[in-house]
Every structure is written in C-alpha cells, then in structure tokens.
Amino acid sequence: MKIPTFENKPDLIDFLIENKALLIAEKKATMKYADAVGGPVSLITEKGEAIKTESVPATVTKIKVRSIINTTKLLDSHGDVHIDQLWNKSLKETKRHYLVDQHKFDFDNTISDDVKAFVKQMSWAELGFNYEGNTQALVYDSVIDKEESPKMFDRYRKGKVREHSVGMRYVKTDLAVNDDRYEKEKGLWDKYYPMIANKEDAMELGYFWAVTEAKNIEGSAVVRGSNFATPTYSVDEKTEPSDTQEEPLDSTQKLDVNELLSHYKL
Q1: How many CA atoms lie within 13 A of 151 on its CB side?
Q2: Which of 149, 205, 150 is nearest to 176 (CA)?
Q3: Which residues, 6+ apart, have CB-to-CB distance to 104 below 8 Å?
Q4: Sequence-ordered list of residues with C-beta below 8 angstroms from that of 161, at least 6 positions apart, any chain
Q5: Residues 103, 108, 112, 113: is their CA dihedral positive or negative?
Q6: Mind listing the pLDDT tens digit for each residue in 41-99?
C-alpha cells in the first residue's frame, strides 16, 4: 500500500491507524531483507586471541566466520524495531541455516550451509556504536570452504565483507505511535521507545513497527543493508571438525527518515 504524503504528523498517524490491519498483512505476506550491520573485521583464533586479517594464510582451505546478521532495539529503514526474543521460536524449529550472497538463495550463491545460528546479548560498544545499553544480536558461526565458495571465501579471508542482513518473514508485529489519541498504539510506544538505541530517529518519525516474532530464512553477506549494525565479527582458520559455539562498526549513524518513508512510495 502506498502511504500518501501528509502535511502534518497527526494525519499520517490517522492513516496508519485506519490501515493498520492491511499494512501488517502486507508485511507478513512479503520477505523482508532487514538492515545490515556493518563494520570492520575482527579476527579471533580458536584460543580467543586477536589476530590481523593478513595472519590468515592464503594457503588455508577452510575458515570459520562469525557474523552479526541482525540486531534488536534499532529503528531500521523499514520503520521496524526488532524486539529481544523475536528469533526464539524460529531458531528452535529451524534445523539448517544458510549464509548466502546478497540474498540470492540458490545453489550458486550459497556461501555455507555449515552454520550455527544463535542469539547473544552484546553491548552496542562491543559493536563499535556510541549507543547506550545492549542489543540482542542474531549471530551466525559459519564454516566456509574455499572449494565450494571461492569468491566469498577470499573476501572474508581478506576482511572485505563488512555488512550482513537477515532474510526474514514477519510473524508478529504491531504499530506503535507517539500520539495520545490512540491508547493501544501509544501504550506500545511507551513500552518499547525507551529501549530504542536511535531514539532521535524514532521521535522524528513518530511511529514504528514493533516486531516481536519473525522467521529467520537466511543470513546474507551484503554490500549495504537496511540495518547498519551487522558486521563480520571474526574470521579464523578452520582446522578442527565443526565445533561452533555461541557467543564491531563505525560509531553512531543517523537514520535517513526520508529514505525510510520512500519504502512506502510504490
């Protein structure tokens, strides 16, 4: 649905409330390629020791990559704020995860299907942002084989993959508005707004979609995505059988609200 341009925010809020059910149905009916998290590559050995990118020898045939695929509590360019725990059900039910190239989910562009996906509480400072508090990161630990994905193997080894994005489907989402005329939607604003990292962007927009459950379809290496907090966290030589375990970017960035609104101008 195309959202018209309004002269004032109350008219925009009225339109969103009136068409909320349709807008949510449209969101649930489509794939979302969520904002990328990006930043410098940090390389970590299996002993937890920091190393430089060039320390991963060109002669290796397998590397283990830890990627931040998505982060919560950040208003993204779709007008969404992902809420902690949104991946719990999907991660429990999904048996195999895939790291792919630019959301091209096919044989030719699959980087790795040897992936362990999990969520991890991390501070924004760990990810290189000047926001206060923590985020729940969707993390992929992937083993990348040079023979199976030579181009992306080389890019990761050299530290040239700086952003990631999640391909997802909405399961549960609702509208939050900064408008006292709408009790339910204002209640959601009051509940979730305090935890948003980029509060100024949310206040300027005047509303957001709180996403409380989503299905993780794939994680992608991207040149640039809609969530700017999704870096490659570590890369190291893979020498042992897969033993992935659970468990950083440029400083605070400003969301382009005009660009966000352009997503609705079909």
Answers
A1: 7
A2: 205
A3: none
A4: 41, 67, 152, 155, 221, 232
A5: positive
A6: 444 444 555 555 556 788 889 999 999 999 999 999 999 999 999 999 999 999 999 99
Two structure tokens written together for 95: 């048996």
Per-residue model confidence (pLDDT) at position 32: 95
* pTM of the full structure: 0.82
DSSP string, 156-214: HHTT---EEEEEEEEEEEEEEES-TT-HHHHHHHHHHGGG-S-HHHHHHH-EEEEEEEE
pLDDT at residue number 127: 87
∠ Cα 129 73 259 (to 5°): 80
Residue with tokens 């002993």: 47
Work out the mean pLDDT of the chain and round it to a whole number: 86
- Max Cα-Cα span within the chain: 64
Helix residue spans in the chain (DSSP H): 9-18, 20-28, 88-93, 150-157, 183-192, 199-205, 257-262
Which amino acid does the sequence have at 200? E
Residues of the chain under the 50 pLDDT cut: 40-46, 226, 244-251, 263-266
Amino acid in position 167: G
> 40: which 2 tokens?
């410098």
Interatomic CA distance for residues 104 and 92, integer angstroms:
24
User: Is there a contact between 63 and 99 (Cβ–Cβ < 8 Å)?
Assistant: no
Q: How far apart are the first and last CA of the chain?
A: 7
